[in-house]
Every structure is written in structure tokens, then in C-alpha cells.
Amino acid sequence: MSQFVDRRLSGKNRSAVNRQRFLRRYKGQIRQAVGKAISGRKVADLERGEEISIPSKDLTEPFFHHGPGGRRGAVNPGNKEFVTGDRVDRPEGGQGGGGGGASQDGEGMDEFVFELSKEEFMNVFFEDLALPDLVKKQLTAVPEVKRVRSGFVSQGNPSNLHVVRSMKQAIGRRLAMGAGPREALKEAEEALAELEAQGKGQSPEADELREEIETLKARIAAVPFIDTWDLRYANRSDQPQPTSQAVMFCLMDVSGSMDENRKDIAKRFFMLLYLFLTRAYERIDLVFIRHHTVAKEVDEEDFFGSRETGGTVVSSALDLMKEIVRERYPSQAWNIYAAQASDGDNWDDDSPLCRDLLVQHILPLVQYYAYVEIEARDPQSLWHAYEQVAAASRRFAMQRILGLEDIYPVFRELFKKKAAA
Q1: Same domain for 271 and 296?
Q2: Is the pTM of this model over 0.70?
């Protein structure tokens, strides 16, 4: 019998396979524990690990043991109390003699506690979330490649043999190899013709020319019609193709009616959205637009940290988004998504304009547009206008956030996976 000894050194992640098996096996309990952890955690603390526990009753495993019944003998060394035929009383409390049962003080086995890494925690958190309606292209983190023609090679698969190119190569080779002998043959034939014209056709010199002519003809005839050197095969190589691109527009109201608490909720919502996008997609641009009466594009730091006040003209942000899409993100090449956060306050005359801008100019270009209204107890004019937009297009979704505890449920509702039709 052959024996194999594995002398490979164990790596530092030698238990990673067992850990992944454990996570898959107790996936349901882990998801419940992560859900409880999220409910008591701020969104700003989302990207870190978590210590979770699983009840010991959920960790039981099947095992083989002897069933009851039958007659069998047993030797109990040191037994001075019992003889054959005595009945042993059942232990108090209904428990057997093994460990792991409840003790007299009512305490049982501790729950199994272990630490989820940041990556594992985020995988569970984002497991059933996805940007919906990927209509044009499916975003992927795997670079796409395309097989393209890249000339010809002298070796390859017979199925890729290029006949025309091979024949051209053979003709050129035959011309090159036969050029010298043909030129010499022509000169020898002309010299023989002169000798015959002078009446010296039977001279030794004429016989030598005839032998040379035969030799040259044999050399020319020996050139093969096609040789393995002539064969050419069509070559194809992998050319990286640009993966499908996506851009996410983040629009936020920073007018005077948006107090610090509302701004803080909006910031947390966008932070969660930003975290989700950067995890899900490799190639994605983020465009941050802040607005009051005037909208402007800012970087991430200014978007979350700048403080401005003023009135509210939401259409200014939508106009700016439309211009940016037209100049930098053509819909033929980009998957466009947008999320807007506001308290719903807007000039009454501006809300219908926002509705028209969305329906006529923006929604035809985007894959999805999400609107969240923050801490608005009663629907505002913008909400009523957007209700008409939601009724007119499936690409538009709207939700209300009343407090920090609503951010995560609203986020999941806006970006949950849609069941296959």
C-alpha cells in the first residue's frame, strides 16, 4: 500500500476553509445575529466587524450511540453499593449523568461567541441588496476581454489555417527560390541557341549546356508547390474591453429648512449608499450636487462637511444633473443612477418644474432614481409632485425617513433585489 506524507507547511490562513464552512452551515443564525447588531449600531460604524453569539442549542450535531433495550453486561470497578438486579434511581431534575445540562443554580452551557471580521460582516449585511433594474449592461468586477484578430502566425490550430495567406506565402517562396535557376536557365538556353545557329549544335560545349539546362530544370521542378514553412494561421488575442460603467448622482438639499439633524440623517444615508456602491462595483463615478437656491457640484468632503443656508429651488440641482449627464456621461456608455435627499420643502412654483424635468429629461436617461424625504411629518409640495412621477415611471422610487433608525430599512427598501418576473 502506498503512503503519502504531506510535508507542505501550513499557511497562516490554514483554518480559513473550516471557518467558511462554519459560516455557511450557520448562515441563518449569523444573519439573525447581524440583524440585531445593526439595529443597535450607527451607520457611521457600519464598516467594522462584530462579535456575535449563537445559542448552544443551535450547534448540536448528530452522532451515533447505543439505543435502549437489550441485555448486556458491564463491569463497574469499585462498586460496593449495588448488585445484579438492583434498580438505579433517575437523577433529580430529569437530567442524565452527562455534562452540559442545567445545574442546580439554573445556569446552563454558555452561548458560542465568535468574532466576525469586517469583510464577513459586510458580506452578510449586503447579501440581499443590489441596485435594481440593470437594463443596459450588468456591472461586473471581472474585467471583460474580447477575442480580436491580431495578424498571422506560423504555428497554430489547423482549424485556424488561412488558405489565401498561405498560398500567397507559397507563391512568394517559389518565386524567390526559383529566381536564380530561372535566370541561369534563360542564359543557358540563349547560349545553346547561338551555338546551334552557328552549326555547333553537336560540339562538347553544346552538350555541357544541355546538361546544365536539364539540371536547372530539375532544380526548378524540385521547388515544392507549398511547404510547411508557407502555412499561416489566423491569430487571435485577448484584448481588454472597458467594463460597463456606472455613475451615481447624490443630490442633497442644504437650504435653511434643512437643520443639522436632517443634514446628519442625509449624510448617513449617502454614506451608506457610498459604501454599498464602492463594494458592489469596481468602475463607478460619484457626482455630489448640493443645492439651495443655486446648485453646484462639489467633492465628497464639501458635500458632507460644508455648511450653507438659503432658500430651496430643487430644480436647480436637476438642471445641473442634466447638464453633467449631457457633457460627461452619455447614456449610451454609462449606467446612470441618482439618489436625492431633502426635507420636501420647495417653492410651490418649482415643484411642477421638478416633476417635468424628471419625467421628460432625467428618467429617460437613468436606470434608477431614489428620493428620500427626511423628517417631514406631513407630505410637502415636492412629495406630492414626486408622487405623480412615481406613478408615471417604474424607475423612480420614494421613501420617508423620520429618524436614524429608519435609514437602514428605507435603504433596503429602495435598493432591494427584485424578484424575477
Answers
A1: yes
A2: no
